[in-house]
Structure formats: structure tokens, C-alpha cells
Amino acid sequence: MKVSEMNQYVKVDYEASLARFMGREDMYARFLKKLLKDETFQKLTEAVETHNLPDIERYAHTLKGVFGNLGLQEGFETSNEMVKAVREGQEEKIGAFYPLLREQMEKYLNVIGQLD
User: Fold this and answer.
1) Cα separation of 100 and 78, whole Å?
2) End-to-end distance of the chain based on CA atoms, in angstroms?
3) CATH (domain of 51)
4) If we measure between CA atoms, which residue out of 84, 70, 80 comes closest to residue 100?
5) What would the 3-class secondary structure string for the chain be?
6) Separation between Cα atoms, residue 80 and residue 56, nearest integer Å
7) 79, 76, 72, 106: which is closest to 93 by C-alpha?
8) What is the dihedral sign for C-alpha 87, 67, 7, 108?
9) 26-47 burial: b if 16+ Cβ within 10 Å, else e
10) pLDDT tens string 54-95
11) Structurally, how many domains does the chain consist of?
12) How many angstroms separate the CA atoms of 56 and 38, rounded?
């Protein structure tokens, strides 16, 4: 599958993302594929399991930046909500946003794994 076809499976801001990668789809695809090996989500999972709020904020914020740069809008929005929940002391919201983010991440990894 080509990067330009990802929108059939996940919401991607393809045009803006491609512009960030100087119009080079090959470079954009290479950076998307780096997400397959990235350990930030696993670290976030561990932080959520141990209720480590500083680490939840750190890893959710990191993911927010990664998702934003890659144009993965839903992941960006959900990780942003997790960051806000920690910063606003609304720990109960983390439990609602984390499963959604896990689902989005699984979908991203599945789709990215199919890229040419």
C-alpha cells in the first residue's frame, strides 16, 4: 500500500504531512515506519499501569508530537487529551483516553506495517 492510500483506513492529514517531508512520499513513509519500532507507547502503557503521572504526561506528550508530525490526527487529539488530563489533575480521564489511544495505535501499526 502507498502512503497516499492510508486515508482509506485511518484519518491522515496527508497533504500537510507530505509538505513537512518536502513532498517526498518515500521520506514520509520511512518516518511512518519508524513508529513500528518506537517504544514510546509501551512506556506510556507502563506509566498508565503504575499510575505514574509524570511519565504519563511525558510519553503522551511525546506521542502527541510524533502523531502531529506524521499527520495521524486522531492519535494526536487523544494523546493531547491525555496530556491535558494529567496537567489538569483529572486522572479519571486517563482511564478513558488510554484504551482509545491503544486502539488507534494498533490501527496505525497495522496500516503502517502494510506500506510498500
Assistant:
1) 7
2) 5
3) 1.20.120.160
4) 80
5) CCHHHHHHCCCECHHHHHHHCCCCHHHHHHHHHHCCCCCHHHHHHHHHHCCCHHHHHHHHHHHHHHHHHHCEHHHHHHHHHHHHHHHCCCHHHHHHHHHHHHHHHHHHHHHHCCCC
6) 11
7) 79
8) negative
9) eebbeebeebeeeebbebbbeb
10) 999 999 999 999 999 999 999 999 999 999 999 999 999 999
11) 1
12) 16
Separation between Cα atoms, residue 24 and residue 4, nearest integer Å? 11
- 45: domain range? 3-112
CA distance 50 to 66: 23
Cell of 24: 517526498
Rounded Cα distance between 58 and 93, Å, is: 16
Q: What is the pLDDT of residues 27-61, one digit of tens each?
A: 999 999 999 999 999 999 999 999 999 999 999 99
